[in-house]
Amino acid sequence: MSKCFVGISEKRLNNRRFKKTEEAILRVYLSDEECVSMGKMAKRAGISRSTLYHHHRTINSITIDYKKYVMRKYGRFLKREMRARIGVKSLLLQMILFVLHNKKAFEILFKRDKGDVIREMLGKKKEIIMRYACIRKNNKVFMIYCSEMTELFREWSLDGFSETEIEELFENIVYLTDTIKQRLAKIN
Predict the structure, then answer these.
(1) What is the pLDDT of residues 35-65, one digit of tens each?
(2) Domain containing 18: what range?
(3) pLDDT in tens, 113-126
(4) 49 plus 77 within the same structural domain
(5) How far apart are CA 100 and CA 13, in angstroms?
(6) Which domain CATH number covers 26?
(7) Residue 87 pLDDT > 80, yes or no?
(8) Are the beta carbons of 160 and 117 closer than 8 angstroms?
(9) Directed axis angle between helix 103-112 and helix 116-124, to 10°?
């Protein structure tokens, strides 16, 4: 393994040579054929094994590297947005735009990680969402909400994260959130 490995970062992705190599790796990684070894993956990508190890430690770490990258970036994004004290609906719209802006990373995550990153992103703002939707310490309802949200984003990913679908996606998210809020208000 390379001692130089530092993971995926904005700086590295802006480097032309790194980006070209990463695109070759991802083309092979996202193809339907399974790569069982780093050597086979490097050969199919047209790069050396040491270059591949410089980018990723293992085949399975590719998804993990992108998930860490997205969550770091999302954390910085949330810090900026939370200073403005935006509401839940604005937060959810900003989440959609964040996914759209980072489309390539989310294509990788939805193909290999089944969208679990959406649950993690929602988890970062769990308190605000639970307070808005009147979920009140009911983690099971929040988990169902996260599963439904993940499904909405998964469907959007199947459409290639189409910009024309954003309005419909946002309407579905708001409907889901408000429906949970109304049903829980009737119970309480």
Answers:
(1) 678 898 899 999 999 999 888 888 888 888 8
(2) 10-59
(3) 777 889 888 888 88
(4) no
(5) 17
(6) 1.10.10
(7) no
(8) no
(9) 120
In a domain, 2, yes or no: no
Look at the chain and report how many structural domains it folds into: 2
Residue with tokens 């590719």: 62
- What is the residue whose two structure tokens read 């001692």? 3
| In-domain check, residue 4 | no
CB proximity list for 128: less than 8 A, separation 6 or greater: 88, 91
Task: Give the Å distances, CA to CA, from 69 to 25, 86, 113.
Answer: 17, 24, 14
Does 105 share its domain with 126? yes
Among 124, 140, 142, CA closest to 181? 142
pLDDT digits (tens, 9 = 90+) for 107-162: 888 887 777 889 888 888 888 787 777 766 667 888 888 889 999 998 998 888 99
Question: What single-letter DSSP state applies at residue 104?
Answer: H
**Other CB atoms within 10 Å distance of the CB of residue 139:** 10
* 65: enclosing H helix or E strand: helix 61-83
What is the total residue count of the chain?
Answer: 188
Same domain (yes/no): 21, 103: no
Cα–Cα dist 44/131, whole Å? 50
Average pLDDT over residues 30-36: 72
SS3 (DSSP) at 128: helix
